[in-house]
Amino acid sequence: MRLLAILCLNVALLSGCANVQREQVAGVDVQDNSREGVEQEVRALFEQPFIDPLTRYLERYSTDRARAGFIRQISAERDKRCAVIAARYEEQPRTLESLERYRRGYDYSCSEDVEAFAALVQAATGSKTRAQEVASDTDSVPESLTDAQRNECYLLTKIRNFNEARELCIMPAESGDMRSQLNMALISQALRDYPEALRWARLVAERSPEARYVLGQLFANGQGVMQDYAEALTWFQRAANDGHAGSQAALGIMFLKGEGVAANPLTARQWLLKAARQNDGRAQYYLGEMSEMGVLAERDPMQALAWYDLSNRNGYRDARTKMESLSKQVDPEKFSQAQAQVRQVLSGGQQ
C-alpha cells in the first residue's frame, strides 16, 4: 500500500490510483489493455511534462493497432512539445554551447529541430552540422539513394521494427550512408546477430558515439567477440566524453563494480550523475543503489527510493522491485524531502 501511495503521489492528477499497478509512462508491461485502461494511461502520459516518455511510448506501441488513434495523438503532442522547445531555442545565442545543450536535452525526441538549430549555428560560427559531417564521409553514396529511403530506415529502427528495418537499411548502409550503417549495427545487435553488429559498429565508430556504445556493450558482454572489459571501457569512455548518456551510465557502473578498472565509487558517481541528468533510468537506478547501500555516504533509504522512483518513471524496470522493498519503510515527509534533494542534485545544485 505504501508503494501505491508513492506512485499515486506522482501520477494521481489525471490517472488516479485505480490503475497504478500498471506503468503509465515508463516501459513496464501494461496489464489493462481495455480502451478505458489505455485512455487513463495516455492521460497520465500527457500529464507528465517531459518529451522523452512520449517518444518511448511511440517506439513501443507504434505498431499496436489497438492504440492507433492514441498513437496519432501522442505523436502530435510530442511534435507540439518539440516545437515549444524549438521556439525557445530560437531566442538563444547561436553558439556551439547552446547547440550542445540543445542536443544533450532533446536530440532523442526532437532531432530534426535540433539539426535545424545546428544549421543556424553553422551559419553563425562556420562550424559543420552533423548532416554536413556525414555528407563529407559518404561521398560514395549514389544519387539514387533518396532521403526517403534513409529516413524510412531510420524511422523503422527508431520504433524498433527491426526485421523490416533490416530489409530497408541494408542497401543504403552498403552504399556508404553512415546513419544507415549505424542503424544496421543497432538492428543486428537487437536481433542478436552479434558478428554483424560488430562489423557495422566498427565501420562508423570513429564518427558515431552511439556506435562506440554498441562496441562497448559487445566487448563487455562477450557478444560476437571475446569478453574484454578493458576494451569495453575504452569504447564507453570515448562515447561518454562526447556526451552519450548510455555510455556515461555504463562507465559509471564499471567504475562502481571494478570491471576493467580499479573500483572508484567517486568516479562512478560522477559519471552516473552525468547520465542521470540526461534522464537515463539505469544511471538513476545505480545512484539509488549507492544511496541504499551507503556508498560514499550514510545509508539513505528515502533518497534511494526517490532515485528508484525516478528510474522507474524513465523506464528502467528493475527499479520497480526496489521500490516495492523500500516502500515498507516510507515516511511521506522524508520521502518528499528526498525527492527535493534528488531534484537539486539533477539540477547541478549538489554533487
Task: Explain how this protein is built.
With 351 residues, the chain is mainly alpha-helical. 70% of the residues lie in helices and 0% in strands. It has 19 helices and no strands. Helix 10 runs antiparallel to helix 11. The longest helix is centred in the first third of the chain and has 23 residues. It is globular. The two termini are 32 Å apart.
Protein traits:
351 residues; mainly alpha; 19 helices
Task: Summarize the model shown.
70% of the residues lie in helices and 0% in strands. It has helices spanning 2-15, 35-47, 52-61, 68-90, 96-106, 111-125, 130-137, 147-158, 162-174, 178-190, 194-204, 209-221, 229-241, 245-257, 265-276, 281-293, 301-313, 318-326, 332-346.
Helix proportion: 55-70%
Helix and strand content put the structural class at mainly alpha
How many distinct helices? 19
Number of β-strand runs:
0
Oligomeric status of the shown chains? single chain
What is the 3D shape? Answer: globular
**What is the H/E string?**
HHHHHHHHHHHHHHHHHHH
| Rg result | 21 Å
- Average pLDDT: 81
Ranges where pLDDT stays below 50 over 5 or more residues in a row are: 11-31, 129-143
Strand content: under 5%
Largest sheet: none
Quote the distance from N terminus to C terminus. 32 Å
